Amino acid sequence: MFKSFKAKVENQLDRKSKVVGSDKGCEYYGRHTDVGQAPRSFFDFCKDHGIINQYTMSGTPQQNGVAKGSNPTLMDMVRSMLANSNLPEFLWTEALKTTVHILNIVPSKSVPKTPYEI
Predict the structure, then answer these.
(1) Can you give the residue ranges of the Integrase catalytic domain (predicted)?
(2) What is the distance between the alpha carbons of residues 73 and 50, in angstroms, rounded to a whole number?
(3) For labelling alongside 73, which of 19, 48, 64, 95 has CA 20 to 30 A away?
C-alpha cells in the first residue's frame, strides 16, 4: 500500500518522499530477535529508496499528534452519525468514509484552503 501511495504522491506533487514517521510497530520497524532487530520489508524498502524512518517513543501517543488526535474526532462523528440515522453498526466503515470526506471539504483555521482544494 505504501508503494502505491509513494508513487502517487511523488507523481502528483513532483517531489520525492524523504521521511516516514511511525510508531515502532512490527509491521514498520521489524521484530526483536535474540541477536537484535530483524528489519521488515517496509524498513528495507525505505532504506533502498533513501527514505528516513522516524519512530516515536513507546507509550507517547502525543508524538503522533495529528494522527492520534484525529482518531477520537473521527470516531465521535461516526458514532453520532450512526446513532442519529438508526443504521446498523456494520455500516461504520461507510460512515467513516463519509466523515473523512466531510472533514476534507470543510475549511480549517490553520490553512486557507480546504484539504480537498489542496
Answers:
(1) 1-118
(2) 34
(3) 19
Cell (9 digits) for 63: 508524538
Q: What is the pTM of this model?
A: 0.47
Helices (H), the chain: 2-13, 26-29, 41-48, 65-85, 92-105
Amino acid of residue 41: S
Rounded Cα–Cα distance for residues 108 and 91 (Å): 27
Instruction: Determine the Cα–Cα distance for residues 116 and 105; give it in Å rounded to an integer.
Output: 5
In degrees to the nearest 10, what's the CA dihedral of 87, 90, 94, 99?
Answer: 70
Residue-wise pLDDT for 38-81, tens only, equals 667 888 888 899 998 887 776 666 666 555 557 778 888 888 88
